[in-house]
Amino acid sequence: MSVDALLAALPHGQFIGGEWRPSEATFEVMNPATEEVIDRVADGTPDDALAALDAACEAAEAWAATKPRDRAEVLRRTFELVTERRDLFATCMTVEMGKPLPEAYGEVTYGAEFLRWFSEEAVRIEGRFSVAPVSGQRILTMKQPVGPVYAITPWNFPLAMATRKLAPAIAAGCTAVIKPAHETPLTTLLFMQALQDAGLPAGVVNCVTSTSSAAVSEPIIADPRLRKLTFTGSTAVGRVLLRQAADHVLKTSMELGGNAPLLVLPSADLDKAVQGALDAKMRNIGEACTAANRLYVHASVAADFSARLAEKMAAMPVGNGLDEGVRVGPLVSAKQLDTVTDLLQDAVDRGARVATGGSRPEGPGYFLQPTVLTDVPTDARVFREEIFGPVAPIATFSTLDEAIALANNTEFGLMAYVFAENLGEALYVVERLESGMVGLNSGVISDPAAPFGGVKQSGLGREGSHEGLEEYLETKYVGIKL
Ligand code: NAD
């Protein structure tokens, strides 16, 4: 699909109460591959935010009372529309975020699947009935929607982060306001259009786009009518939001930053390990919270592994994600490129060796060559901070216990990867990793049917799977005396 066709299809305005409300103030959305403006989007104010919450609150009672099958049908129709409009969604994500087109198509499939999965979960919300063993009273346990939800999403997976939050909210009978990242609002607007076209009643989902994230979010979070805050983004912003949420003891789900270790154990199949590392590092240009951030390789195989990974990374074509054959797009912004190059420079200053990459190509766009660093000292910033870019730092270890200690030496605990063919060795390590998720001989494990989330400072709660629906349900206990 051409960019002109995409622009012609994009809706404009704030989506509030089932209407597209025009806004005087607008902001620019940039293409990170060309540094050109793609479109202008409504720049929402605190008043817009409260209007969106008003709409969600007005729709809440009726939506909570709908039959599960009706909610399921809307989600199913939205799944079908997003799938039919895959060219539109994929082109939009490549243009506003930078990911190569094949990966953008992959995100359409992944993001849409949350709609289908939760359309199926919507009709499986169940409570319990039992007899208390001692008192004999009857115990009725029922599940009810938590109420109006505020969802804040990041720029790295513009469709999937929205569907992963809104599909379970809709399935559970909650209404919602969503605020996308200002870097990538266009995909969320297309998603709002799909929900509207699928017949979602007015006000059930509302969207506020804004460059003033804090200014529009604070009044919503401070409003006692809000019952749930769900956030995906950095740990720093997550902490700020948790403090705000504390005032109302607001129910929260937090999908925060990661610092994933990737461990190559002595028994690893190196073909699998190199491919897994490539997948875990380079998916989404390295801009994934699950990206392999620290590669710890057993000393006996480190030279071979590093050389093979460097060869594969060097062969990945870098360029505009719309161009055929491109495997590595630009980083999302100049700021992101600066952050990644600072981390890279810090590692080199401390003695790391550049096995491949390390520089940026000439011309416009926030590009960085895929980079492999070896002999990285363990105190390098690149091992402590989330890289969020195409840089793979490698260090070695000698014993399994040393690998486990290195892997757990972080405040984060979202994702870890282990490559090993010896099951005993693999499980010894997996059981000791402080991580919400582990990829065993796999570099990509995200799946709508699996519970996604972290421990330690990587977050609270889970998204996807049945656990993802529970986050939008309250449990009510009714004690019955006969
Ligand atoms: P970010 O925290 O800067 O922004 C995330 C969202 O929060 C955006 O919509 C932004 O506009 C908004 N925001 C920023 N400051 C705010 C404030 N004071 N009040 C309210 N909203 C505010 O993160 P980012 O740079 O957009 O995304 C990258 C981060 O997201 C990384 O740390 C990554 O690990 C994390 N992430 C986590 C997951 C996960 O599931 N754990 C998934 C994707 C990304």
TrEMBL record:
Keywords: Oxidoreductase
Superkingdom of this protein's organism: Bacteria
GO biological process: gamma-aminobutyric acid catabolic process
Aldehyde dehydrogenase domain location: 20-478
Molecular functions (GO terms): succinate-semialdehyde dehydrogenase (NAD+) activity
InterPro entries: Ald_DH/histidinol_DH (IPR016161), Ald_DH_C (IPR016163), Ald_DH_CS_GLU (IPR029510), Ald_DH_N (IPR016162), Aldehyde_DH_dom (IPR015590), Aldehyde_DH_Superfamily (IPR050740)
Pfam family, one: Aldedh
Catalytic residue list: 255
Family: Belongs to the aldehyde dehydrogenase family.
Listed name of the protein: Aldehyde dehydrogenase family protein
Organism: Raineyella fluvialis
Taxonomic classification: Bacteria, Bacillati, Actinomycetota, Actinomycetes, Propionibacteriales
